[in-house]
Amino acid sequence: MSNALGTINPVRDIVALAHAQNIPVLLDGCQSIVHLPIDVQALGCDFFVFSGHKLYGPSGIGVLYGRYSQLEKMPPYQGGGDMIDRVTFAKTTYRKPPARFEAGTPAIAEAVGLGAAIDYISGLGRQAIADYEDGLLAYMTGRLSDIDGLKIHGTAKDKAGVLSFTMKGVHAHDIGTIVDNLASVAIRVGHHCAQPLMDRFGIAATARASVGLYNTRQDIDVLAQSLEKVREIFGP
Q1: H helix runs in the chain, sequence order
Q2: What residues pair up with 189 in beta bridges, in sequence order?
Q3: In angstroms, how far is CA 154 from the centroid of its own chain?
Q4: 3-state secondary structure of 63
Q5: What is the pLDDT along the chain (236 residues), one digit of tens a residue?
Q6: Where are the strands (E) in 46-88, listed by range?
């Protein structure tokens, strides 16, 4: 799932094409992990990663899923306690995965917090969350489409949770500042670590509104009303 547009990419097809050329695939699931049901077996990827804070958990921790066959071939990236099998002056051998990659004392408190976040999300039901957010996204798309001079970027049929837009004659950073000051609406602005995509659209930046399980239609109404104010400030 694109963090810049919300587009859900056909990763199963991409993985199949890559595997046909014996190319392993790592999927960055930071955006999708909280919005979509994820099944790494069905996706067929070799690695899948996401950040804990994207899942309403603590910062400073994340998850790496890897196929055992791939992890077994990889050397450790750091040394420390519990990842060593045998040490001599002649040779060092390492434990089997995943212990090989878990040197030293882990982020214990963060792991407990991330576990609680995963339990919370699982209790609500990932499909239920996705369905609810799809309704919010459809409502937001309709509300913002009615604003003069506002252009939505990223209109793929399959998308989730994210709506990026520009306003004629208004820089994205001005949009973000004004809606924050007027109504305490928090949106992201900038190139979203996707400058080639911005180049593709011929723009410098977008404003990006994301919906989550905690949002309501009333939140979207406040966003739309504050964007109308932005339009008034900068004129037609």
Answers
A1: 11-20, 40-43, 68-71, 108-124, 126-145, 172-183, 195-201, 217-234
A2: 207
A3: 16
A4: strand
A5: 999 999 999 999 999 999 999 999 999 999 999 999 999 999 999 999 999 999 999 999 999 999 999 999 999 999 988 899 999 999 999 999 999 999 999 899 999 999 999 999 999 999 999 999 999 999 999 999 999 999 999 999 999 999 999 999 999 999 999 999 999 999 999 999 999 999 999 999 999 999 999 999 999 999 999 999 999 999 87
A6: 47-51, 62-66, 84-87
Residues annotated as part of the active site: 193
173: which 2 tokens?
């950073």
pTM value is 0.89
Identity of the residue numbered 97: P
Instruction: Give the number of other Cβ atoms within 10 Å of residue 100's Cβ.
Output: 20
Instruction: Please tell me the distance from the alpha carbon of residue 4 to that of residue 189, in angstroms, as a whole number.
Output: 10
Choose among 193, 136, 188, 189: nearest CA to 159.
136
| C-alpha–C-alpha distance, residues 87 and 97, integer Å | 17
Q: Tokens at residue 163, please?
A: 């709506």
148, 154, 160, 162 alpha-carbon torsion, rounded to 10°:
-60
Domains (range + CATH), the chain? 11-124 (3.40.640.10), 126-234 (3.90.1150.10)
